[in-house]
């Protein structure tokens, strides 16, 4: 059973959400103020948090920031009102995973919640395989370390996540949309073009000859593949 925390000060909305998520089979906790919400978010073992932006005591962005500062990675959906100035990029930067504007339909909220839960399950599953070794490359997810022939290669966070995904699925073509959803999540401001840009940067860092990609190959119109076999050129070397 998934456990959800609803932090919302408007009683009518809070109660409607409590009833609805209970009915849908979630274990529901709720809070009506910022400080109470933060306390529960820290103490309870939650799967997801629905967090209102304007709250007494401590606002939603402050709660988000505080949780991420404490390394609490529970997925968060922010609730905002159309009349409120809400900088969605700032919200996502501070650690919210998604946001939804009031008034919203329960159908839409459930869809967002389910999408986030699915994503966090994929992430949880991925973290089980901490070390991946293919050819000259080794990726250590726990240490956030990527090496080629034992030498560390500096990757950005996105490049690291991308590399991890490609290596986990070595030998299989990953569709651009799947790469987007796994690495960036279903955020609105990234496009498939973003994937291409980061793949190009990654190739420059890992390929012997970036002009001829042996390890990461593109499949036109579909996506990318990490080749699990050592390229022939490498076999002839050393
Ligand atoms: Ca409010």
Architecture overview:
It is a single chain. The protein has 238 residues and is an alpha/beta fold. It folds into two domains: 3-124, Rossmann fold, CATH 3.40.50; 128-234, Arc Repressor Mutant, subunit A. Helices cover 43% and strands 21% of the residues. It is built from nine helices and twelve strands. Strands 2-1-3-4-5 form a five-stranded parallel sheet. Strands 6-7-8-9 form a four-stranded antiparallel sheet, with helices on one face. Helix 6 crosses helix 7. Residues 9-10, 52, 54-55 line the site of calcium ion (CA).
Low-confidence stretches: 233-238
Instruction: Give the number of helices.
Output: 9
The largest β sheet comes out as: 5 strands, parallel
What pattern of helices and strands is seen along the backbone? EHEHEHEHEHEEEEHEHHEEH
Task: Give the strand line-up of the largest sheet.
Answer: 2-1-3-4-5
Total number of domains: 2
User: Which molecules are bound in this entry?
Assistant: calcium ion
Beta-strand content bin: 15-25%
List keywords for this structure.
Arc Repressor Mutant, subunit A; 43% helix; four-stranded antiparallel beta sheet; 238 residues; Rossmann fold; alpha/beta; five-stranded parallel beta sheet; disordered C terminus; binds calcium ion; single chain
